[in-house]
């Protein structure tokens, strides 16, 4: 079993990843700026922030995989990209890092335009989407020794549309995953299933992938 640290472990994506990892028997460290009142039994919760990389590195000592589930929104807008870049540059060799991005960086079709560039994309979410894309670009330029993966959830992913755990999902490479009606959705629980499957059986070494139904 792996020792997994989830930065942003109290957020929507983070708490589902923590729950799935614990349920699979992994050793899980959930790092959050504020320890939540509702915690998943079996995980260790500690206070920490992506904005304090030196302290974070101390907390991450001994982990096998680090997952950043911190979204660049609100007071974190503009802070996630530079701090992930700093963290990646200082992580010990052999520690894999996974980053939860947004749907905006997905492509609408193979070799096509990005979702964020479509007229239908909400303007107020563009800064967050573009910063998330910048994180991916930084990872793509990281030294070959850095083992990473980056995940674009479906468009309908969030606490406003939670869904249920079915244990199933589809991946779409660079292209956003949609169903037969053109809808893009993934529940928080099934998104976590995809993340843990990637951790346990890596199929996207130094690559991004999309997840949906």
Give a short overview:
The protein has 213 residues and is of the alpha/beta class. Helix content is 27%, strand content 17%.
Distance between the termini: 28 Å
Task: Give the SSE string.
Answer: EHEEHEHEHEEHE
Largest sheet: 8 strands, mixed
- Binned strand content: 15-25%
Instruction: Give the helix tally.
Output: 5
List low-pLDDT spans: none
Q: What features would you describe in this structure?
A:
The structure is a single chain. This protein has 213 residues and is an alpha/beta fold. The protein is built from five helices and eight strands, in the order βαββαβαβαββαβ. Helix 4 (126-140) links the parallel strand 5 and strand 6 (148-152).
Brief descriptors of the model:
213 residues, 17% strand
Give the arrangement of secondary structure elements.
Layout lengths: L2 E5 L4 H12 L3 E6 L11 E4 L5 H7 L5 E4 L11 H11 L5 E5 L25 H15 L7 E5 L17 E2 L16 H13 L6 E6 L1
Helix pairs in contact: 1-5, 2-3, 3-4
């Amino acid at each position: 079993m792996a020792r997994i640290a989830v930065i942003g472990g109290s957020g929507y994506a983070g708490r589902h990843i923590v729950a799935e990892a614990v349920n699979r028997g992994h050793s899980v460290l959930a790092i959050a700026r504020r320890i939540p009142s509702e915690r998943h039994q079996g995980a260790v919760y500690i206070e920490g922030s992506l904005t304090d990389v030196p302290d974070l590195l101390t907390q991450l000592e001994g982990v096998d995989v680090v997952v950043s589930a911190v979204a660049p929104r609100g007071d974190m807008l503009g802070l996630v990209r530079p701090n992930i870049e700093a963290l990646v540059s200082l992580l010990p060799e052999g520690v894999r890092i996974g980053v939860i991005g947004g749907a905006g960086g997905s492509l609408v079709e193979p070799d096509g335009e990005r979702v964020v560039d479509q007229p239908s994309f909400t303007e107020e979410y563009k800064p967050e989407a573009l910063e998330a894309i910048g994180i991916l670009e930084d990872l793509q330029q990281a030294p070959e020794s850095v083992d990473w993966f980056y995940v674009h959830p479906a468009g309908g992913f969030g606490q406003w549309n939670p869904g249920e755990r079915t244990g199933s999902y589809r991946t779409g490479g660079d292209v956003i995953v949609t169903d037969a009606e053109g809808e893009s959705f993934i529940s928080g629980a099934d998104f976590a299933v995809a993340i843990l499957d990637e951790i346990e059986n890596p199929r996207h070494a130094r690559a991004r992938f999309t997840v949906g139904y």
